[in-house]
Design brief:
The structure holds two protein chains of two kinds. Chain A contains 13 helices and four strands. In chain A, the strands form two sheets. In chain A, strands 1-2 form a two-stranded antiparallel ribbon. A two-stranded antiparallel ribbon of chain A has the order 3-4. The longest helix of chain A is centred in the last third of the chain and has 38 residues, at 241-278. Chain A is globular and about 85 Å long. Chain A is mainly α. Chain A folds into two domains: 36-94, no CATH class; 107-325, MetI-like (MetI-like fold). By secondary structure, chain B is mainly alpha-helical. In chain B, 70% of the residues lie in helices and 1% in strands. Chain B has 13 helices and two strands. Chain B has helices spanning 3-8, 11-21, 23-40, 42-49, 92-128, 130-144, 148-155, 165-193, 196-203, 208-244, 256-262, 264-268, 274-301, and strands at residues 61-62, 68-69. Chain B has a two-stranded antiparallel sheet with strand order 1-2. In chain B, strand 1 and strand 2 form a beta hairpin. In chain B, helix 3 packs across helix 5 (92-128), helix 5 packs parallel to helix 8 and helix 10 runs antiparallel to helix 13 (274-301). The radius of gyration of chain B is 23 Å and the shape is elongated. The chains are: A mainly alpha, B mainly alpha. Chains A and B meet through helix 1, helix 6, helix 7, helix 10 and helix 11 of A and helix 7, helix 10, helix 12 and helix 13 of B.
């Protein structure tokens, strides 16, 4: 156990370092913006006086490094723009302040995150279950109809862009069969049933496509696993086939599945963004794209870093899970 | 076939023979060749049809149905082989073939760039090992598990308006695309580094550069070819995804992803699902073709690609 604790601490430290390096890089890149946020926000007519005022208010008159440190401070302790009655408070964790929208970036993110997260988490749960069980089924019925179906499905799934399949699903299930709603998001807190009902199609589409590579992986790994010595030993000792497969085989399958899942987390967020556009839901992706259009650099930096942090943290969880599942990892 | 005949044929020749014998690889190869030919000849094909992707044909639209095309199958006719775009009446065949040209051009350039960079980084990391390998591996892990789509969208904000978007697409897709290839190539190269011929070259005083380019690279051409082919469908999909989100090549340059995005409203209401069908089928066939070919080439070269470890 202490090994695992050390492993977690080491991972945690590495994660914080990665986040710091990433935020610095992002800050330096995005503050090379050709447009001046102060000029965009200084109103008309933009006299040199007012421009200077706006610049000071937005704290753009400081050096890039100072601004970056302010940004870090904002995440940990919050920050205040301006002084006196006009001051704008941005509470921790403050990922910046959008002057065009007159809202802290964190507030903007939190208003959109539930949509993107609902799509991503629901789809991930569905695809892990579907991918592993279909892959297992295919491995156990190798060469039979079920196997061929699963392998064929996996091929089409790998080959299809998610937005294309999403639109086809809307056409078939939403328009022709009129079975499920095709767009719009209902908050979980309003009505859990409506929430799930509106998300059924996005979940199934995203899960079906991503399950494909998990079917392939589970099938290949299971076929390999079933030929290993410890499986033969278990069989020779008279263990039932169900016990052999679930207890001994599946354990070997889970480790690579967890690894790949960690690698796919970044893609999961991207997939959720494409999916939210297909189903006309106003999630993080929509916020980011419209901010790029509005040259609202505070939101762009905030959303990008926040999402990257989220993925990095999720990866940390996956890593720790990996350490628990496969004791060899902790000692590496 | 006798074994002496097989041993007289080079492994590459054998691999191509295996691709030809594999039914789905053959289908993939045919699809790829046909689509590449269509992409190359796209301007000619549009001229043959007598249309271009920019001219509005308002007269062919039905104002009573919200300016959907008149006639069945999205206004398909002898003049407009794939029908016309709703709202503008632009020719959908010209848009689809020229859009395919844009997609494939970007995908192939990005594949070349990422393959060259990925191969050099992957092989050198495997050969030099030590801290260099550790740093590269961490960087690759990081880049690979990164929400790259978000960054590709976000980078649009710092690019001056005059900067050509297709070049921006190539750059961002390359910057975030090479890591996956480098990782796979590094894992392939690692198994070679320990072999005797590398040891022999090293002990006879060959430089690192010489060993990487003359000893390791020729032995890795098969896996590199496999990895590059298998990367193409992902790049086509990523480019189409960015265009779909409205951050790809700007209008009026035809783009499959943008057309698919434009078709959303017409699919929701069922007013003109054909607008989705033609650009969608084009994109699907392109991705499917390269996927089948990639799988076939992998099986033929008998390369085991592990995403883990």
């Amino acid at each position: 156990m202490p090994d695992l604790v050390w492993f977690v601490i080491r991972r945690l430290l590495a994660t914080v370092l990665v986040m710091l390096a990433l935020s610095l890089a992002v800050y330096l890149i995005f503050y090379a913006l050709p447009a001046d946020p102060a000029r965009l926000g200084c109103g008309k007519p933009c006299t040199p006086d007012r421009l200077e005022q706006a610049r000071h208010f937005m704290q753009l008159d400081q050096s890039t490094m100072q601004q970056y440190l302010q940004f870090l401070k904002g995440i940990v302790a919050g920050r205040t723009f301006g002084e006196g009655a006009a001051a704008v408070q941005c509470n921790a964790p403050c990922f910046g302040y959008s002057f065009p929208l007159a809202r802290p970036v964190t507030t903007l993110i939190l208003s959109r995150l539930p949509i993107t997260a609902s799509i991503a988490i629901g789809a991930a749960v569905l695809w892990l279950i579907a991918g592993v069980s279909l892959g297992l089924g295919a491995a156990l019925r190798r060469g039979r109809l079920f196997d061929r179906f699963a392998v064929g499905f996996a091929l089409v799934g790998v080959a299809s862009p998610s937005f294309l399949v999403g639109l086809l699903a809307i056409l078939v299930f939403g328009f022709w069969l009129n079975m499920v709603p095709v767009n719009g998001y209902v908050p979980l807190t309003d009505s859990p049933v409506d929430w799930a009902w509106h998300l059924v199609l996005p979940w199934v589409v995203l899960a079906a496509l991503n399950a494909a590579s998990y079917i392939r992986l589970t099938r290949a790994q299971m076929l390999e696993e079933l030929n290993l010595d410890h499986i033969t030993t278990a069989r020779a000792k008279g263990a039932g086939e169900g016990r052999v497969v679930l207890l001994h085989g599946l354990r070997g399958v889970l480790v690579p599945i967890v690894t790949i899942f960690g690698l796919d987390l970044g893609g999961l967020l991207g997939g959720a963004i494409l999916t939210e556009k297909v189903f006309s839901m106003q999630g993080l992706g929509e916020l980011l794209i419209s901010s790029v259009g509005q040259l609202d650099v505070a939101v762009v930096v905030g959303v990008t870093l926040f999402s990257a942090f989220l993925v990095i943290l999720a990866n940390l969880v996956v890593d720790v899970l990996h350490g628990v599942l496969d004791p060899r990892v902790g000692h590496a | 076939m006798g074994s002496e005949v097989v041993s007289a044929v080079s492994p590459t020749r054998q691999a191509f023979r295996r691709v030809r014998r594999d039914r789905s690889a053959r289908l993939g190869a045919v699809l790829v060749v046909v689509l590449v030919l269509i992409a190359i000849a796209a301007p000619l094909l549009a001229k043959l049809e007598g249309q271009d992707p920019y001219t509005y044909n308002i007269g062919l639209l039905d104002p009573l149905r919200g300016n959907a095309p008149r006639g069945a199958v999205g206004g398909l006719s002898g003049d407009h082989w794939f029908g016309i775009e709703p709202l503008t009446g632009r020719d959908l065949f010209a848009i689809a073939v020229l859009g395919l040209r844009t997609s494939l051009f970007i995908a192939i350039v990005v594949t070349l760039v990422t393959t060259v960079v990925g191969t050099l980084v992957g092989i050198s990391a495997a050969y030099f090992g030590g801290w260099y390998d550790a740093v590269v591996s961490r960087l690759l892990d990081f880049l690979f598990g990164f929400p790259s789509l978000l960054f590709m969208i976000a980078l649009g904000i710092i690019v001056p308006a005059g900067f050509p978007r297709w070049l921006l697409l190539i750059i961002v897709l390359s910057v975030f695309g090479w890591a996956g290839l480098a990782r796979l190539i590094r894992n392939q190269a690692r198994s070679l580094v320990e072999r005797e011929f590398v040891e022999a070259a090293r002990s006879s005083g060959s430089s690192g550069w010489h060993i990487v380019t003359r000893e390791l690279l020729p032995n890795l051409l098969g896996p590199v070819l496999v990895i590059a082919t298998m990367a193409v469908p992902g790049i086509i999909g990523a480019e189409a995804g960015l265009s779909f989100l409205g951050v790809g090549v700007p209008p009026p340059t035809p783009s499959l992803g943008r057309s698919i995005s434009d078709s959303i409203v017409w699919v929701y209401t069922g007013a003109d699902p054909w607008f989705l069908a033609f650009p969608g089928a084009m994109l699907f066939l392109a991705v499917l073709g390269f996927t089948l070919l990639g799988d076939g080439v992998r099986d033929a070269f008998d390369v085991r690609l592990r995403r883990t470890h």
